[in-house]
Design a protein that fits this description.
Helix content: 25-40%
Number of helices: 15
CATH superfamily: Ribokinase
CATH architecture: 3-Layer(aba) Sandwich
Shape: globular
Strand order of the largest sheet: 6-5-1-9-10-11-12-13-15
Radius of gyration: 20 Å
Largest sheet: 9 strands, mixed
Strand content: 15-25%
Length: 403
């Protein structure tokens, strides 16, 4: 049995589709200077900061931006929990156990979150309940942005996540073969202890994976200086960042230089997503402490899936780009967990294939493009895996044709 434990950002997403980023209200509330609390297209701001920036109550601002009294849909969100749900849905009989440690409030959002988690086929047994508000994010989606490729803006109410730290994790959290720290910037006590947590994961012998999110708190606090993540990157086996996060964390002027910075500072491997553009891959030093090694890369970048573009172009049902990156991480997790279950290489170390993980991630992210929200709610076990199959087939053919 391969045990995969995760923690980080887990919340209720309130989804507002068909929001135009070209209207006067959106322009009025857009950020003017770094960390001023205004809207950041493709990024995240805190609702309290936005209210201060605008000098208005947040509920009033939200209605101005969306023209709606309530969201089109509420969903499970968060780059910590959504990847785990995807990986759990597609694991089949692979002998992998997925768990997530998080926090919910004793409010309506918390009740709804638990209902949605059950509907997604996942357990809430490792969640702590508190009297603080359940973390939530209002997701504003403009499908016409970027020549029809779409973009989102996120407004987060941090709530109970502001009081969830390392001491709240289950006693056996580090008793696992793989550990994910997902978007801890939205869980400040965990984020500030990430260096220690990654080290504990490494010392326990687990494969440590970290995926990031726009760190609005440090962006506002540091005024353009590099965001802190960890001091010892050698404790991270796989780091997944998007192009903006890569330069914000590293302080490098370009994405390619950011890749080298992470690898030179000890990361076992790095994947940088770039929206609809190619995904970048890099492998660093294996290191004496790592019981695995990555196979040599044939590709340093991998394109997004053309088949997904063809499918979404013909769709008339509601969809958005919410959760594409989260499902991408989930697809990578699924691949790595399956590989960890295989026999060691001839060198006595596990041989891992980063390209296979990215392949799985791109297919998973492509399925999310056809949905409204990041979580695919199955009517029966195996439905998500069935939906994933044509994307795996089409993307494999695309890569073969490009050789």
């Amino acid at each position: 049995m391969i045990r995969v434990n995760a923690t980080g950002c887990s919340l209720v997403d309130n989804l507002f589709g068909e929001v135009s980023f070209s209207i006067d209200a959106y322009e009025r509330y857009k950020s003017r200077t770094v960390g001023d609390g205004g809207l950041a297209t493709g990024g995240l701001v805190f609702s309290e900061a936005l209210a201060g920036f605008a000098g208005k109550d947040y509920i009033h601002i939200l209605k101005e931006l969306t023209g709606k009294e309530r969201p089109d849909r509420s969903n499970i969100g968060g780059p910590g929990i959504v990847p785990i749900i995807h990986a759990n849905q597609v694991k089949g009989d692979a002998g992998i156990q997925y768990r997530f440690a998080g926090v919910v409030g004793r409010d309506e959002n918390g009740k709804r979150f638990r209902e949605l988690l059950t509907r997604a086929g996942f357990s809430d047994e490792d969640y702590t309940e508190t009297s603080l508000p359940t973390p939530s994010t209002d997701v504003l989606s403009d499908p016409s942005y970027n020549n029809g490729r779409g973009e989102r803006t996120f407004i987060n109410t941090i709530g109970a996540a502001d009081a969830y730290g390392p001491d709240a994790l289950p006693d056996n959290f580090f008793d696992a073969e793989m550990i994910l720290f997902g978007a801890t910037a939205l869980v400040p006590p965990l984020h500030d202890a990430l260096d220690e947590l990654a080290a504990r994961g490494r010392n326990s012998g687990a494969f440590v994976m970290v995926c990031t999110v726009f760190d609005f708190r440090n962006e506002a606090r540091l005024k353009g200086k590099p965001w802190p993540l960890v001091q010892n990157y050698a404790n991270i086996d796989l780091l997944v960042v998007d192009k903006e996060e890569s330069v914000k964390i590293s302080g490098a002027p370009t994405v390619s230089e950011a890749m080298e910075w992470f690898l030179n500072n000890g990361c076992g491997s790095v994947v940088i997503t770039q929206g609809a553009d190619d995904v970048l891959l890099g492998i660093g030093s294996t290191g004496k402490k790592r019981p695995w090694e990555f196979k040599r890369l044939k590709r340093r970048s991998m394109p997004t899936c053309r088949y997904a573009d063809e499918i979404t172009a013909s769709m008339t049902t509601p969809r958005d780009t919410t959760g594409c990156g989260d499902n991408f991480v989930g697809g990578m997790m699924d691949s790595i967990a399956r590989q960890l279950a295989e026999a060691p290489s001839m060198t006595g170390r596990m041989s891992l294939d980063l390209e296979d993980a990215v392949f799985s991630g791109i297919a998973a992210g492509s399925v999310a493009l056809t949905c409204l929200g990041g979580v695919y709610y199955e009517k029966a076990p195996g439905q998500k895996l069935e939906a994933l199959d044509p994307y795996l087939t089409a993307y494999r053919k695309q890569l073969e044709e490009s050789l």
